[in-house]
């Protein structure tokens, strides 16, 4: 299973909105977008790009006719059942079993490639998408790139991150799961505009109504501390059948970020229940912006769902410092200079643990 994640730093919002509308009205992709410029998620520059990204992804819909060759191929491929239900992610399985997902099952076919939007889950500030891809011809491993692009109610969010992974079942068939975490305030319902680009410039456009799962419980948290210049403010703990989330902001002197020595963007959390059982972390992206000499980061960190017998959790913030990385500086003449990540100059810190009472 591959899990690349990259982001678009200059997503063409107006063109996508127009393209989605045309795609829905005409049933065909008649407006083509240029290839998106993406950055390697291993680059240190990712953190700063998140503040202005039109980080975007996609979904797909509508069933077209299949050729006899495609039907023959598909008859040999066991793509049955639910993408979420067949995944190894506990939260997705539970959400699917409890009927919290929106089962769509619509397909659109372009150039002999059928892409099906199987189901969608919207919980907390996360959107998770399950896809099925089936083709008449063999597909290259990276045919769909690093995933999908999206807009919410016609606009791209100012900050988002996520992951995209494919399960390759055969040379012509695969499933995929994309998870998007938005750091902006999110409505309980919205229209999701979607775009997927293929290797040969195919464009699948869609629009999907999305509604938040109704089982989410939110617990306000007021944990604030400042350690060695890092200000941390944990604001909320939320949980439901699909997973657990910790929301927070952190900040530090912007000069440290400029010099690649900031630490506030690397905060993660360890969660244990009252019996010492650790809740598995799935991390989560970070949105960063400069405000009056400080870099302020906002994030929602994701975890597995907690068991029904959990009455209290202990949350421990910590720094998950990278062991490598780097970036690229581009001067006014377009010349690129590789920047080395100065991880040896970053000193770890120790935060305080805090507890949250759970009412199941």
Would you give an account of this structure?
The chain has 360 residues and is mainly beta. 11% of the residues lie in helices and 45% in strands. The chain contains 5 helices and 22 strands. It has helices spanning 13-26, 46-49, 68-75, 90-97, 254-258, and strands at residues 6-8, 38-40, 102-110, 113-123, 126-135, 149-152, 160-170, 173-182, 189-197, 203-211, 217-227, 230-240, 243-253, 267-273, 278-279, 281-283, 286-291, 294-303, 312-319, 326-330, 336-340, 354-357. The strands form 6 sheets. Strands 11, 12, 13, 16, 17 and 18 form a 6-stranded antiparallel sheet that branches. Strand 4 and strand 5 form a beta hairpin. Mean pLDDT is 77; it is low at 1-11 and 24-78.
Percent of sequence in beta strands: over 45%
pLDDT < 50 stretches: 1-11, 24-78
User: Average pLDDT value?
Assistant: 77
Largest sheet: number of strands, sense, barrel closure:
6 strands, antiparallel
Class per helix and strand makeup: mainly beta
Shape: globular
Order of helices and strands: EHEHHHEEEEEEEEEEEHEEEEEEEEE
Please, how many helices? Answer: 5
Distance between the termini: 35 Å
Number of strands: 22
Percentage of residues in helical conformation: 10-25%
Q: Mind telling me the C-alpha Rg?
A: 21 Å
Secondary structure elements and their pairing?
Elements: E1 6-8, H1 13-26, E2 38-40, H2 46-49, H3 68-75, H4 90-97, E3 102-110, E4 113-123, E5 126-135, E6 149-152, E7 160-170, E8 173-182, E9 189-197, E10 203-211, E11 217-227, E12 230-240, E13 243-253, H5 254-258, E14 267-273, E15 278-279, E16 281-283, E17 286-291, E18 294-303, E19 312-319, E20 326-330, E21 336-340, E22 354-357
